[in-house]
Design goal:
Elements lengths: L10 E3 L4 H8 L4 H7 L12 H12 L16 H7 L7 H11 L5 H16 L6 E3 L5 E10 L2 E2 L9 E2 L5 E3 L2 E5 L4 E6 L11 H15 L4 E5 L6 H8 L6 E5 L7 H11 L1 E6 L2 E10 L8 E12 L5 E14 L5 H9 L4 H11 L10 H25 L16 H9 L3 E6 L2 E6 L6 H11 L1
Parallel strand pairs: 3-9, 9-10
Antiparallel strand pairs: 1-15, 2-3, 3-7, 4-6, 5-6, 7-8, 10-14, 11-12, 12-13, 13-14, 15-16
Helix pairs in contact: 1-4, 2-3, 3-12, 5-12, 6-7, 6-12, 7-8, 12-13
Length: about 450
Amino acid sequence: MRFIIEQSDETMTTHSGLSLVGLLLDKTNLGSRLNQTTVPGVGTPDISNRDVAYSYLGLLCQGKSDFDHIEPFREDEFFFAALQIGTVPSSPTLRQRFDMAAPISDWKPIILEESANLLHDFGVSVSPVHLGRDKERSYVPLDIDVSPFDNSGTKKQGVSRTYKGHDGYAPIFAYLGHEGYGVHVNLREGSTHCQKGTAKFLAESIRYAKRITSLPLLLRMDAGNDSVDNLVVCRSEGTYADFIIKRNLRRESSDVWLLTAQRQGMCCESRPGKKIYRGSILSSMKGLSKPVRMVFEVIERTIDKNGQMLLVPEIEVDVYLTSLPDAASVVIDLYHAHGTMEQFHSELKTDLDVERLPSGKFDTNDLVLHFAVLAYNLLRMIGQESLKREDAPLKNTVQRRRIRTVIQNLITLAAKVTTHARRRYLRLGRRNPWFTVFRRLYLAFG
C-alpha cells in the first residue's frame, strides 16, 4: 500500500516527554541562580542565562549534545512551553554563551548543587547496602572512577593519550547508590594521572552526596587512587565516609603476601590445586594517625583449570584498604559491586552522546559535561519513578531503567498539542502503551 504524504495544520510534537523535564527543572533554583551570575563580555543579554541553559538541557535530555541541534527547536512552540523558555538561542549564540561562561567558576558548582538539592527535595530512593549480623548498619555506596572519552582524530584543547591507548579526555565521575545518580564530575586532560587533584574532588563529592542522603556513605575507588590523601579526607570530620579502596601493590612481593595469608587468613580449596586465602591485618601508613585495616585475598594455584600441574605455583594477590569491620568476603564482594559504575559511564557516553564533546575549548567541554550530569539525573529520576508501579509495557523486572530506554519511551513520545479555553492539552495516541505511565509521572512531578 502506498501512502499519500501531506502536511497537517495541527500542532504535533515528537518529544512530549520534555514536559516532565520542565516540571523537574521548575522545582530547582537553577534558572534564577544562573541569571544572577555575570558572564564576562555579556552585559544585559537579550537571551537570559536561564534560557540558554534550559535549551541545552532540552537537547541533552533527547540524547543530543551538539550545539547545532538547537536549530530545529527555535520555532518549536512546544519546546518553549515545556521548558518555560522565553527565547531559544541560535546555535552560534548557544556556543558563544557557553564559551564565555565556561572560564568563570560560578556555573559548575551551581549546576551540581541544584542537582543534589533536587534529588534531596524530591526524596529520590537511594538504595543502601545493609551490613552487620542483623543488617543493623546501612551505607549508601559512593563510587568514584575515571572513564576515558575517545576523541581521536580531533585537535580539541586538552586531548592527549589516555591509559586506554587512544587520544581523548580522562574525566572523573562520582555516582551515588545502586541507581547511580550523578554527584560530581570533572573533565581532565587525557594524560592526567587518575589521582591528580582527586583528594579535592573526593571531598567535594562527599559534601554533594551528603546533600542528597543522610545515611552513612561507603566510598569505593580503584587501585589508581590508593593514596593516603584520600584516606585523610575520609577520616576528616567534615567529609567523613567509610571506604573500600583497592590497594596498589606496586613492588610488593606476592610470595610475602602468600606467607602472610597462610599465617593470618582462612583457607578454602575451591578445587584441587586452587587454594584461596582470605583475611585481614592492620597496617600503619605514613601520614595517618591510626593504622588502617587491609583485607586480602590470595589465590595459590598449583594445578590449572585444565588439570595441568604447574612447575611454579601461580600466586594472585588482591588487597583492599577499608574502614569496615566486616568479614573479608563481605568487603571483597562489596568492592566487586563497584564495577556497576561502568554501566553509568556507558549511559553518559552513548545514551546522552557526550563522549565526543562538542567544543574545541577545554573549559566549554567541562561545562557541557556538568550539564550532562544534570540531564542524566533528570532522566534517571524519570526512569526510577516509572518503576514504582507495574504499569509499563515492559514486562522485565529491573531495578534501574536505562537512560536510553527513558529517552526512547518517555521523552520522544509523539503527541498532539491543542489549546482550548485557555488550557493547553497534550493528546497522546489512543493505543500508546506508555500513556498510563506518562500521565502518572506528570501528576507526580507536577
